[in-house]
Amino acid sequence: MKPASHFWAGVRAELPLLVGVFPFGLIYGALAVNAGIAPAAAQAMSSIVFAGSSQFAFAQLARENAPALVIVLTIAVVNLRHMLYSASLAPYLHELSMRWKILLSYLMTDEAYAVAILHYEKVGGTGHAHYYFFGAGLALWSTWQIASGLGIWLGAALPADWPLDFALPLTFIAMIVPALKSRPAWMAALCAGFVALSAQALPYQLGLILAALIGIAVGTMLEARSAQTSDLREKREEK
Question: pLDDT exceeding 90 applies to what percent of the chain?
């Protein structure tokens, strides 16, 4: 396939997820303005930081006048997942130039990663497969800039009873479910979801931090146990 074919295939794969991203961007823009963040700064976060969950958490915590340390800690924990994303994509991207790696790392979000990793698992990292990732990431970036900018412009004019917030969990469910291919992954997701629901009353979004840490711990523990079981099985078969 030519680079353009990979690129547009990535754009098409990303389109269903953009249905949920757009209202999420609207919510972020309106929330940022209502939290007292200057419109220019709010839009700059979308263009430079380009991390929806972190921007959303920052706006919420800023509105609640949370301490700076809590804001930094929350955003750091929320973004830890990108280290895992990078580690899983590294085998497919190691032959790319540094410019491509920097560009793709900037465009890497939950939604772009979700479609890119499934594609790489099918075709590998050979040829022009990285254009697929580029197409998915650029489609998301463009949508996020427009949606957040529109939300900033509308600000408080958005009716409070518009059920826009439902789109975010639906988007993440659509991303996560296809990637849950093992028992450790399923258990990590279920435990994190249970903790997030149970601890949602905690202040400063601390329930989110707790859910992420417990999900990672459960997944890591079960993955290690599964690896040990496989090693023991192989040793028995050798005997």
Answer: 24
